[in-house]
């Protein structure tokens, strides 16, 4: 405990914390310098704040020499990402998917009404749009059980609810690095859709995402474009709004799949088609927001996949400075920032990459702290060169260790 009037050590600059910890151990600057392979002058400059200690590998080296965890040097105890909790939750989802066709106990396990279930699914979808992925994971097993076939009379409403639950399950699993399990959930959604155009389109979106994550770009392209065909788009201004939104979303997914296959002609055709639909679609649908900004962001990511990183960053900056960007769900904005980080890195601008990750963490922390893909790019940024203290602190909070 700090004496009255003394600053909390967590509020001190990192150099001051190094000096305090070194002094408490009766260690001279020379001894610390010898242990970390640096000069006494280097240690002195770090402790006085003349030299910044902001690279995670060196922070880990200094912390080891002082006998403390890296988080202590960063002014806080390291809070590991809840990997164990997430793994446990994913296993519960896996079990729910495995037992989905097993009849429940009607006496003790009475399912909610379709109206109540619709509210629960809507709440879970809202949590997903806000990137509350841990919360969604906790809800999914019960939603899968409640929507289980046989619990409700067969109807279009019950089939749609089940498709929405499977879709949400697949999208969440893709986020959390479980594309094979996501594929299973999305395939179940496609089966439940039973050929209905709207339900099939809903199910095809996460299926294409899972396939693309599994590097099956050509198959993802086929799935997405095939699902567009049955939708009523003969007169876009008179078509059902959900058909326009679903078709546009599928076309952007198809464009990203085409980009992973190295097909720029298909990318241009698909995004142009999506842009034409977006121009006539203004409503933000509750399960699938779509509009011109979505197409613009897809063009940026497609350019990155095709290797044109300058164009990708230009398109990203242009889109991210619009009002439409700020109206997108937090999940969409943060996920895009994580994805565009790779383009910054490929251009050799690790500072811009770091800023993108920090911005994503401010918008939706779970997108950075829970997603394996985000951990991968964060590690790449840390290895690329000196990084801001905030980014180093974020890595320590997540529990990432980067070797020099």
Describe the structure.
- This protein is mainly alpha-helical and 404 residues long.
- The protein is 69% helix and 0% strand.
- It contains 22 helices and no strands.
- The chain has a domain at 9-73: 434 Repressor (Amino-terminal Domain) (Orthogonal Bundle).
- The radius of gyration is 25 Å and the shape is globular.
- Helix 13 (241-260) runs antiparallel to helix 14.
Summarize the structure.
This protein has 404 residues and is mainly α. Helices cover 69% and strands 0% of the residues.
So what's the overall shape? globular
Strand content: under 5%
What name does the CATH topology of one domain carry?
434 Repressor (Amino-terminal Domain)
CATH top level of one domain is Mainly Alpha
Cα-atom radius of gyration: 25 Å
pLDDT < 50 stretches:
1-10, 77-83, 104-108, 283-287
Helix segment tally:
22
CA(first)-CA(last) distance = 35 Å
